[in-house]
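Re-run with default settings, no changes from the original entry. Doing this only to confirm the output is reproducible before filing.
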Amino acid sequence: TGLKEIEYCVEPKFDGGSISLIYEDDLMVRGATRGNGVEGDEITTNIKQIRSIPLSAKFSKHGIQTVEIRGEVLINKNNFAKYNQQLVEQGQAPLANPRNAAAGTLRIKDPAEVSKRNLEAFVYHISYYTTPATKEAPFTTHSQSLDLLWELGFRSPKQEKKVFKGIQQVIDYCLEFEHTRDNLPYEIDGMVIKVNNLELQDKMGMTSHHPRWAIAYKFKARQGTSKLLSVEFQVGRTGSITPVAKIQPVPIGGVTVSSISLFNEEVIREKDLMIGDTVLVERAGDVIPYIVKSQAELRKGDEKHIKFPKNCPVCDSKLFKEEGEAVWRCINIECPAQVVERIIHFNSKDAMDIRGFGDANVRKFYEMGLLKDIPGLYTLDFEKIGSLEGFGKKSVDNLQAAIEKSKTQPLHRLIFGLGIRFVGETTAKTLASAVDHLMDFKQFTQEQL
């Protein structure tokens, strides 16, 4: 930048469901989820149920004609606890945590149910706006844009943000704020540090993934202590065998943790884990739980070693481990566990996006003999499905429509959906760009691939 000292704006990193709002001529005309960063879900009706989002705002007072605002939808801790209590009283399972509850609520089709959950929204970024050609910019710094949003009736982090010159003050404020995080009425998982001057932001630019002028400071993960009760072995879609620790349920950061992936045999050895151990558990990024270590000094002598299987726990085929890899694999392509996981992956949002056909229904249809492989998705007997409990005409029609719609997905989604090992989303796009039809790959040599 050529500057000796940079001005930064520091604000909380809200932990909820990301949204984008469009206002035209002072009226809110569209609300959407962030989705994959390029395409999200249209949720305008649900957005209108959130009282802290104005349906109209006097942007024209500042010469703004059209504006896009980014924000985060939250459920504060008190409202979350009250709603969960209502669910329990109705005999329903409580929601896992405020973050998942907020993100999930945005996609509910019943606006009345959305309204009941008392969502709140914080807006933290004006990403785009238009003004008449002769009009001066209504703000020149990020902090000024937050002040403007607050003035127009939005909940922006005006009160929580701080502006500093020099990085040391930024560091001190982040550390100070971390100590007070549990006293806040809503969940945050860190702080966001942004270069305050918008002209300097433009000069610094973006990578393909994120802006160079902003960085997140993540708070230390919350921890808890529990007991390792047992280890189960799961088979993934590529045949990988994953040990999963079953522990005594322990609450960590508002979520009760009872299952934790141990990844592979080497992790078990490195952490010196035994059945019956007292273990230190952490949620990485306050999301994914993992075992930090066993507390060997608390062992009583009756702990048991964890025995990794030599055969697949589902189809009993002999397991193999490639040289240089840490993962044991079942190489039986007909292994029922792999077949089911491949279908689940094929249906997933980032692949063929067959909505309403999640894990539970795939497993149910497979066990009942209604579905045996991926091609079978397109020859399902919907008459039989309609006779099943919980599948009314509307459910069957929606499922049939979702499967039919998947036929229009671009080729790269199909390639990714096939679940080929080492072929992720990026590789799938690269492969798809090289052909016009999937069957064209039959003519490719190994060198061409």
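The chain has 14 helices and 17 strands. The CA atoms of residues 55 and 357 lie 35 Å apart.
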